[in-house]
Amino acid sequence: MAKWGLSTWLVFVRLLQVLAAIVSAGLNGFLLVYIHVNRLGLSQAMSTLEIMTCVVLIYTAIVLLVQHTGRRRIKAPTNVVATFVVGDVIFTGLMIGVITILARTGVPSNCQGLTTSESDDAPNKAPKGYNTIGFGDGSSDKKGMLDKWCALERGYYFISVAVIFSYMVTVTLSILRICEGLYTKNTEVDQQLISASELQQLKLKPSKDSSRRYSPVLRARGGGFSSPSPVTEGVSSPRSTTSRQSTGQSFRHQARRPTLPVSPLTSPTITIDPAREGLLIQQQQHTVVVEEDPAEAAAVADGFRPQQLNQAADAPPSYTPGSSYRPGESSSCMVGHARESNEMRLSEYVKGETRAQDLKDRGGL
Length: 365
Known about the structure:
With 365 residues, the chain is mainly α. 60% of the residues lie in helices and 1% in strands. The protein has two domains: 6-194, no CATH class; 281-320 and 333-365, no CATH class. It has eleven helices and two strands; from the N terminus they run H-H-H-H-H-E-E-H-H-H-H-H-H. A hairpin with a 5-residue loop joins strand 1 and strand 2. Mean pLDDT is 70; it is low at 214-244, 262-268 and 328-336. Residues 205-270, 310-365 are annotated as: Disordered. The chain crosses the membrane at residues 44-66, 78-103, 155-176.
């Protein structure tokens, strides 16, 4: 059998109390009715005992129905249990009063006090061998006709004593149940507070993903981390590494602005307005850093646009006077010389012009 809890024991004891009250009321009630009907000298004590027993029965039944059967519908079960604890104490005193009355009538030794001689008693006299039509004192000198029913009142007496002890048990169990309810409630509150504290700590704990998401360090190719390139290096140096997207947008901005003719004897300069510089900074912070083709960077430094570079790459090589073809070298214009400085390109250009002028003078052309 599984271990019983406090509620199970309380139900069991309440059932015993109800059963004891029913039996007590039945024993005393049967004898009361018998004496009253036969007019054998009913005393006031028996009527008082019957009323008190019926009150105990009603109270025990109410406690059983309210506290145990309907406890799920009770909003404050602890208060109800405390109320019934007070009720059990009161009815314990009531049962002590029942025992006191029974003791005054002579129970359990005899039942002489339960009947009395009244003027309206039965006129018939006691038969031979009996001294009275009611209860005797238990001696041979005074025997009563109702002595054979005194066992009922003795049973009523011992049942009343058992009911008193049962009320003591219910008071103890009810107090333990109140303590258990308070302990359980406090435990649940503590658990809720602990859960709320842990949740608050999780909310306050910094997230590693969020710190990585907002980190200024950018992930470059190859899995390593590299900081963004300085703005000045990315703008002024022709070999700086910038993204293709930012370069394309800068080309579109240059295409919208009017271009000035570039003299072959002067080096082109690049002017950057503040708005465009801020746009380049923002694009460098949100784009992945990739390497740029040196030839394309050199073409950008010379002032050419990507469209011109593509057209120059697709067009057939043009003939330059005084230049000889060498395998592996391009014979196009001097646009694609990424590794030569402006002075070297200017020297080659002047030499070619000088050679062409000499040929004209000699009549070779």
